[in-house]
Specification:
Blueprint lengths: L1 H6 L10 H11 L3 E5 L7 H11 L6 E6 L5 H11 L3 E4 L4 H11 L8
Parallel strand pairs: 1-2, 2-3
């Protein structure tokens, strides 16, 4: 994912765990957050919840990636309860990620 985003011209900031992801999101305020559902210390869902509790005027595009929660039930819950824009199952296919980027950031899948 990291390399694919960089190839598309995105500046990528990485976090080692959920707490670091929350801190970076609050300080950097990126347009797009790609969060793993099961990060150490704090899940991607908890990051979203805490982010909304702390900052009401910040509404990034939210992608959740998961290798574990692979069902329509989990996807529906992520979209309804956490307002996740994309719910992507691992292993990630490049075409799926590019299509998701294009849906939310038109022109993003065209480097240059």
């Amino acid at each position: 994912m990291r390399e694919l985003l960089r190839e598309q011209g995105f500046e990528v900031v990485e976090a080692a765990n959920g707490r670091e992801a929350l801190d970076l999101a609050l300080s950097v305020r990126p347009h797009l957050l790609v969060l793993d559902a099961l990060m150490p210390l704090m899940s991607g869902f908890d990051v979203i919840t805490k982010l909304r509790e702390k900052v009401a005027d910040y509404h990034p595009i939210l992608f959740i990636v998961t290798a574990v929660y692979k069902s329509r039930r989990w996807e529906s819950e992520a979209r309804l309860q956490h307002q996740v824009h994309e719910y992507l199952e691992k292993p990630l296919e490049e075409s799926t990620v590019l299509a998701a980027l294009e849906r939310h950031l038109p022109g993003a899948s065209q480097p240059g």
